[in-house]
Amino acid sequence: MKTFDLYRHPTLGYEAVKRGFAWPGFFIGAIWALSKRMWLGGTLLLVAWVFLLGARSDAETKGDPGGAFVLLVIMAVLAVTAGFIGNSRWAKSLVRRGYEHLGAGDADEPDAAVAAFVRKAAVEPTVPTPR
Q1: Is residue 86 domain-resident?
Q2: Higher model confidence: residue 118 or residue 72?
Q3: 96 inside domain
């Protein structure tokens, strides 16, 4: 089971963000970030990848295996970094866009975490706040 942080937006509904490493951020960082509406981070990742791929291609064309290897290591570090910070950046992005953090829940998938939270909230009586 994985632990998910649950967020709710008044009009856009629920989102569940997994705690820990973001595998989509590692494998397809820029595309994943842009799909989660993290425009600045996704754009910066995309620009960095285009630059690094071009520089690596240029190094290989010029017969510089050391330079190509260094650029490959930089690309790997960028991918690992995107994996480690991806989910926390997504959670911060949701809060900035008006989502409210509801708590955390354990589930195998994000949809199951949301369903379990909604089910639990519907069963538990709400305690009125004193005025």
Answers
A1: yes
A2: 72
A3: yes
